[in-house]
Specification:
This protein has 341 residues and is α+β, with helices and mostly antiparallel strands. Among the domains are: 124-194 and 213-255, Rossmann fold (3-Layer(aba) Sandwich); 257-340, P-loop containing nucleotide triphosphate hydrolases (Rossmann fold, 3-Layer(aba) Sandwich), CATH 3.40.50. The chain is 66% helix and 13% strand. The chain has helices at residues 2-91, 95-110, 119-180, 204-209, 237-254, 271-284, 298-302, 323-335, and strands at 185-192, 197-198, 213-221, 230-231, 259-263, 289-293, 307-312, 315-320. The strands form three sheets. It has a four-stranded antiparallel beta sheet, with helices on one face. A hairpin with a 2-residue loop joins β7 (307-312) and β8 (315-320). α3 (119-180) crosses α5 (237-254).
Length: 341
């Protein structure tokens, strides 16, 4: 009994288990179907989401474009308010007049068929270059003004220095000329570009307003009379030599040199002027060394050293001689007529 009973129970349990398994399979199949359905719905949702995202991006782009267009429209509107004032004059015109005006405008525009399309870019480039050049020009103008101001200052200083120097030279010239020419009067006159005499009594400020000094005119009188003043072109050869000697020594007294070399400066002078020149040389020789060549006796009487230059065997020779020998050489040369008495 017991064994048979156990077999019956086992069959029943098997049936129950099979039922449970069948129901489990059915539930599993149903769950899988629901999962597949959910996955399909999820894919559909993702697709829909992608479409909405793309649509949103497209809308955002359109919004940005619309904002930009609105800005452009606002700008055009502002320009139209300016153009409206230009358009006012056309409101009163008839259609025929407007057509005529339009034809004239089109005809005028027809002249510009071959317009340089790069003109605007070139214009912008040229304007930039122009601005740069203008800035450079301003710098150059400022530099030029500074240079001109400096040059004016230098010119004023130069003019004043020249005036003072000529006054000092003129003072020495008057003294030396009076020593060379008994009763003679000489003076230096500053001249401007218009050949007008500049008054030495004029102030530097007054001189700055006039034309600058362009030269010096020498006026001398060998008689001492103011009515007999002569200029250099009016003088004889000997007189010009006297004036030249006076001027040279006047300049040298302003800027003395330690050594002087003169070549027959007394050749064209009369005896009285040769004597005066000899005294002048002796006076200035106290502070400088002077060497002269001469065929005249007056220089011999005031000189300290004497040298004879002669030719021997086609070779120049020089020797020191005493004063008496120097006089003898000069007298011999004069007697032979090698120089004019």
């Amino acid at each position: 009994m017991s064994l048979a009973s156990w077999d019956v129970v086992s069959d029943r349990e098997k049936e129950q288990n099979l039922g449970v398994i069948a129901r489990g399979k059915l539930a599993h199949a149903k769950s899988k179907s629901e999962v597949d359905k959910l996955q399909a719905e999820d894919q559909k949702f993702q697709h829909t989401l992608s479409q909405h995202t793309a649509a949103l991006d497209d809308i955002s782009l359109k919004v940005n474009n619309l904002v930009k267009k609105k800005g452009d429209s606002d700008e055009k509107l502002r320009s139209l308010t300016v153009v409206s004032s230009e358009m006012a004059k056309y409101k009163e015109m008839t259609p025929q007049q407007l057509m005529k005006q339009l034809g004239a405008t089109n005809k005028a525009l027809g002249k510009f068929e071959h317009v340089n399309k790069k003109a605007i870019d070139q214009y912008t480039t040229f304007m930039d270059q122009l601005q740069e050049l203008q800035q450079k020009k301003e710098v150059i103008d400022q530099s030029r003004e500074a240079v001109e101001k400096f040059m004016s200052s230098v010119d004023a200083q130069k003019e004043e220095t020249m005036r003072q120097t000529l006054e000092r030279v003129d003072k020495h010239f008057q003294e030396i000329f009076a020593d060379l020419v008994a009763g003679g009067v000489g003076k230096l006159r500053m001249m401007n570009a218009s050949d007008r005499v500049i008054d030495p009594e004029e102030t530097p400020a007054r001189l700055g307003e006039e034309e600058p000094t362009r030269g010096v005119r020498i006026e001398v009188s060998f008689t001492g009379q103011s009515s007999s003043f002569l200029t250099m072109p009016q003088l004889s050869g000997g007189q010009k030599t006297v004036v030249a000697i006076a001027l040279v020594f006047a300049i040298q007294r302003l800027e003395p040199a330690p050594f002087y070399l003169f070549d027959e400066i007394d050749a064209a002078l009369d005896a009285q002027y040769r004597t005066a020149v000899a005294r002048l040389l002796a006076k200035d020789a106290r502070n400088a060394q002077m060497v002269l060549t001469t065929f005249r006796p007056e220089i011999i009487e005031t000189a300290d050293r004497f040298y004879r230059v002669y030719m021997k065997n086609r070779v120049s020779r020089i020797e020191s001689v005493p004063r008496a020998e120097a006089r003898k050489v000069i007298e011999e040369q004069t007697r032979l007529g090698q120089v004019e008495a």
